[in-house]
Design brief:
5 domains, alpha+beta, 32 helices, about 15% strand, Hypothetical protein af1432, Beta Polymerase, domain 2, about 750 residues
């Protein structure tokens, strides 16, 4: 059998037609791709003056796109007309329909925002501008352009939720007609759709759009898998038709007997949802039992629970498979009762029970606020709901400036599976599956997250990395002086928490690096016999001097120059020589020895320069000064400092082999450093302990360490199986070398200990 005939048997015929023919055929079949008459037929909910405005917008777009064709060969105007048709199905207002018609005029045809404001008004022009991608020429990579254009759209969404509704309609029509594109472009657009736009549709409750975007993307990304699963689903549809018909008949009879008026609709899992379930649960297709389900639509809210009782009397429910999304709605407003029962033939069947308004929201989400308008004016309700749903995305864009990092956070935050947890005051929060108390803290407020020190779940203290479950009551303990821990980035799940932690750490690192840079420059300048010029903005002479120096260094400000020195991008001694040269050119006199000495010792109190001209280490340093992991220096060790390129100051012991290699390669980056006389915290030291195996050995070793008032922060027993002896590697928190020596002496006296030694790398 040839490849073509095999593919024809496996894949749906539509996937094998040439791209242009297929797209043209699909467009011809869809009423939304017709001319204005077809669009006007779907705009019956608008008034005559509004319909006249839409006609003007159509003419404007038609003229703007005159002579422009899509990749399928169809006139370009068919695309905005189709998008406007989708918007009309949601009953969006006249401004949204006009924006849908003109959404590509600024980007593709050179129309200006001012022209749109003059002709159609500012609200419509703002919608069109929010839908316009940024100029790609401004960015070095496609990813950066994509991220910044999405950021722009996000800001427009915050002002008006109609922006994202029109954008999703635009993306849906593009996906429906994607086959005319080149393969690499199809793959890129499909990946972007399934990663970003489909989850946004889910977050906004647009489940119909969500499912179709996923399905279309999956068909483009994995056409063979899509074809094979479609064929298997078609076969299953035939073999299980009897089950579906029997269940539907039984259910209708049961509700008729209970005198409960309901509508029963059958539903089928999408190909993509089947694929995802097979992949996540490692199931073959034959073991996916819930391919079919039913929706039961009832007149009143209380009827939902009556219908549930009727179902559970008819069929046995599956334990643990009942969810009440009416009492606790999903974050996107979705409400239904979900229950899974065992059918007469032993297969599991899921039922969703909801009212008519709930059904509208379940399918159309935020758009349902336009479709089912109430006297209170639901446009404002939709805007408020949209702002609530997208709040975390807005927060992420506020905290993130790097394009790739921004998109990464957005993709994490759009993860659809959720758990529902409670605050101590019974407020419900929706978080991604796998979220932790730290995610919960940042969901409450960024200040709560930043100052989080402990958490309790259901009244019991838990670790901050504990995964939360639906129904948990979470309470966060904060402390005024606490700050985010970089280790939190290893387990937080929400994009909001991740972006807030990174933003805080970067801000903190900038401040620490600036302070270190100032200390290093003051020290190097003192070696030249000069004092650091004033940073007072009212001192015109000093300000002019700093401007000359920053122009020479390529920095935008004095603070930026200090940060560059602090992280090692600039060498303090070279900058000091240039500053000394500029001061000499200006005719500044060198201070006398007494003034220099007084300023030298006085500055230490202001943290501008340490005692004796050295950088002192007391343990209070942040990210700008780090202790090397290769040698674990502790107070009492002879130490030196290495100013890495962009890494800040790293402290090594004087005999560290890694440090010696760095010195041979980069000797000008080494600085004299010393320990403070009064360190403010314990320091990590590693000890190797060889013990003879026996009952209670580990407990005795731990007791010996505890007797010296020392904490064990980590124990490593290695991968080897137990034999006569075992080597334990202990990470200890000690004050200094003397304290470590006391620990080693105590361990040597402990029973079963053969040998103890400090590990230095």
């Amino acid at each position: 059998m040839g490849i073509r005939s095999f593919a024809a048997e496996l894949l749906p015929s539509a996937l094998l037609q040439p791209g242009r023919d297929r797209a043209a055929a699909a467009a011809a079949q869809r009423p939304e791709a017709n001319d204005f008459a077809g669009l006007a037929a779907r705009l019956g909910y608008l008034s005559k003056p509004e319909l006249k405005l839409v006609r003007e917008a159509y003419k404007f777009a038609d003229e703007a796109h005159l002579g422009q064709f899509r990749a399928s060969g169809l006139p370009y105007i068919t695309h905005p007309t189709a998008v406007a048709g989708l918007v009309a199905d949601w009953k969006l207002d006249v401004q949204a329909v006009m924006a849908a018609l003109m959404h590509d005029t600024i980007e593709d045809r050179g129309v200006t925002k001012a022209q749109l404001i003059e002709r159609f008004g500012a609200p419509t022009a703002e919608l069109v501008d929010g839908l316009t991608k940024l100029d790609k020429l401004h960015f070095s990579t496609r990813e950066e352009s994509q991220a910044e254009s999405f950021r722009k759209m996000l800001l427009a969404m915050a002002r008006d939720v109609r922006v994202i509704l029109v954008k999703l309609a635009d993306r849906l029509h593009n996906m429906r007609t994607l086959s005319a594109m080149a393969p690499d472009k199809r793959s890129r657009i499909a990946r972007e759709t399934i990663d970003i736009y489909a989850p946004i549709a889910h977050r906004l409750g647009l489940n119909q759009i969500y499912r179709e975007l996923q399905e279309l993307s999956f068909a483009q990304l994995y056409p063979w898998r899509y074809g094979a699963l479609s064929k298997a689903l078609a076969r299953a549809r035939g073999t299980r038709r009897d089950i579906v018909e029997r269940v539907q008949k039984d259910v209708e009879h049961a509700f008729a007997a209970a005198r409960l008026k309901v509508q029963v609709h059958g539903r089928e899992k999408t190909v993509y949802s089947i694929f995802r379930k097979m992949r996540e649960k490692h199931l073959p297709f034959a073991n996916v039992t819930d391919l079919f389900g039913f929706r039961i639509v009832v007149p009143q809210l209380q009827d939902c629970y009556l219908a549930l009782g009727v179902l559970h009397q008819l069929y046995k429910p599956v334990p643990g498979r009942f969810k009440d999304y009416i009492a606790i709605p999903k974050a996107n407003g979705y409400q239904s009762l979900h229950t899974t029962v065992v059918s007469p033939l032993g297969t599991a069947v899921e039922f969703q029970i909801r009212t008519e308004p709930m059904h509208a929201v379940a399918e159309a989400g935020i758009a349902a606020h336009w479709m089912y308008k109430s006297k209170s004016g639901t446009k404002h309700d939709a805007q408020r709901l949209g702002a609530t749903v997208l709040k975390s995305l807005i927060d992420i864009q506020d905290d993130t400036r790097d394009a790739a990092e921004f998109l990464e956070h957005v993709k994490i935050d759009l993860y659809p599976d959720a758990v529902y947890v409670f605050t101590p005051k019974s407020q419900i929060l929706s978080l991604p599956r796998g979220a932790t108390p730290v995610d919960f803290a940042y969901a409450i407020h960024s200040d709560v997250g930043d100052r989080c020190v402990a958490a309790s779940v259901n009244g019991e203290a838990v670790a901050l990395r504990t995964e939360l479950k639906s129904g948990d009551v979470v309470e966060i303990t904060t402390a005024p002086g606490a700050r985010p821990n970089p280790g939190w980035l290893n387990f937080v799940r929400t994009g909001r928490a991740r972006s807030k932690i990174r933003h805080h750490l970067k801000t903190m690192e900038q401040e620490e690096s600036r302070a270190l840079g100032e200390r290093l420059l003051a020290q190097s300048l003192r070696a030249e016999g000069l004092l650091l010029p004033s940073s007072d903005p009212t001192d015109d002479a000093a300000t002019a001097l700093w401007q000359l120096l920053t122009r020479w260094s390529g920095n935008r400000s004095r603070a930026e120059l200090m940060v560059d020195i602090g992280v090692g991008r600039k060498i303090a001694s070279i900058v000091a020589k240039r500053l000394a040269h500029l001061m000499a050119e200006r005719g500044d006199k060198r201070p006398d020895a007494v003034t220099l000495s007084l300023r030298h010792f006085g500055a230490a109190e202001e943290d501008l320069a340490p005692q004796q001209g050295l950088v002192t280490i007391d343990g209070s340093e942040g990210a700008s000064i780090q202790l090397a992991n290769c040698c674990h220096p502790i107070p009492g060790d002879d130490i030196v400092g290495y100013l890495g390129r962009g890494e800040g100051l790293t402290i090594h012991t004087a005999e560290c082999a890694v440090g010696k290699r760095l010195y041979e390669r980069d000797s000008e980056r080494w600085l004299p450093v010393e320990w403070s006389e009064q360190p403010v915290r314990p320091f990590d030291a590693e000890v190797s302990v060889l013990v003879t195996n026996g009952k209670g050995v580990l407990a005795r070793v731990a007791a010996a360490v505890s007797a010296t008032e020392t904490d064990i922060t980590h124990i490593d027993m290695g991968p080897e199986r137990a034999s006569e002896t075992t080597e334990l590697k202990l990470s200890l928190a000690v004050r200094d070398r003397q304290h470590l020596a006391d620990v080693i002496r105590t361990l040597r006296r402990a029973p079963s200990v053969v040998r103890v030694a400090r590990v230095k790398g």
